[in-house]
Design goal:
By secondary structure, the protein is an alpha/beta fold. It is built from 7 helices and 11 strands. The chain has a 7-stranded mixed sheet, sandwiched between helices. Helix 3 crosses helix 4 (about 80-85). The termini are far apart. It binds S-adenosylmethionine.
Length: about 280
């Protein structure tokens, strides 16, 4: 056990993966679903009032009469998908949290939404010229490794019809200004977010080259089971994101401050990008 702790407390190699599932873990996904569904919480999803504005903006930018078929990647419990369906889009929505997808399917059935929810890793999609619009919302793009991001961008490009749009968001350097490397720990005797029973969380924040950060959470439970959850983030400037997108063939790059269409400025902690095939 000590060997593992020593190993996990060393600086991980770039893009070293978590040792267990995060979004699709049976316990963690319960807390995540609760967080998604809390209308005032900015955690797993953004506040629901933001999502309302976001959907309003998307439907003006790419109206469903011209962009009918929409693919929402990392849809969670369908907060965007159901609002977009109400606007008239025809939706396919993908997520690899079984709990979120099951919740979303049940809600769609109750409310009569015509949404195809799929439990799948979006890195495995294989569509060709099928969608008018693809969304990937709440800075999930930056979580992926260099290889995964390039692969996903190619798959999104392939999945779009000619003239189709891809809308997504990322963090900017402003989000990390003044944030240094640090670590801390806490004991959660009654159980909590990471585990149902008593556990210790050793939290560390690392800075890597090329605008990359890592938040790592090493969880030791009362049976002595140890896991390291690693959440990477590659953050971007307008130039660095444009470079990645152009490599794959995307054109007409527009940059906003967030997914409600606020104009971009140097103080923005996020950046929403809209590109065309
Ligand atoms: C930060 S949440 C955002 C959810 C939703 N877009 C929203 O804003 O309400 C990220 C979602 O992406 C899903 N996700 C992350 N990586 C994924 C992958 N490789 N394939 C499918 N879903 C993924 C997670 O399960 C989670 O539901």
């Amino acid at each position: 056990m000590l060997d593992k702790i020593f190993q996990y407390l060393k600086r991980p190699k770039l893009y070293e993966e978590s040792t267990a599932k995060f979004w699709d873990d049976d316990h963690i996904s319960k807390g995540m679903l609760k967080a998604h569904l809390d209308p005032a919480l900015e955690a797993a999803s953004r506040r629901h009032s933001f999502i309302d504005s976001s959907v309003g903006w998307i439907s003006e930018l790419a109206p469903c009469k011209d962009y009918k078929k929409l693919l929402d990647l990392g849809c969670g419990p369908g907060l965007y998908a159901e609002r977009l369906a109400e606007k008239g889009y025809l939706l396919t929505a993908i997520d690899f949290s079984q709990r979120s997808i099951e919740y979303a399917k049940q809600k769609a059935e109750e409310k009569g939404y015509n949404i195809e929810y799929i439990y799948q890793d979006y890195l495995d999609i294989g569509y060709r010229d099928e969608f008018d619009l693809i969304t990937l919302i709440y800075c999930d793009f930056g979580v992926l490794s260099h290889v995964q991001r390039e692969m996903l961008l190619k798959k999104i490009y392939e999945a779009l019809k000619s003239g189709g749009k891809f809308i997504f968001d990322v963090f900017t350097p402003k989000n990390y200004e003044g944030k240094t490397e640090n670590n801390t720990w806490y004991l959660n005797e009654g159980g909590g977010f990471w585990a149902p029973d008593a556990h210790i969380c050793i939290e560390a924040h690392y800075i890597y080259e090329e605008n990359i950060r890592l938040n790592q959470y090493v969880i030791i439970d009362k049976e002595g089971k140890i896991n390291a959850y690693r959440i990477w983030d590659h953050y971007y400037t307008k130039d660095t994101i444009a470079e990645e997108l152009k490599k794959v063939g995307f054109k007409n790059i527009q940059v906003f401050s967030d997914v409600t269409g606020n104009s971009y400025d140097m103080k923005s902690k996020t950046m929403c990008i809209v590109v065309e095939k």
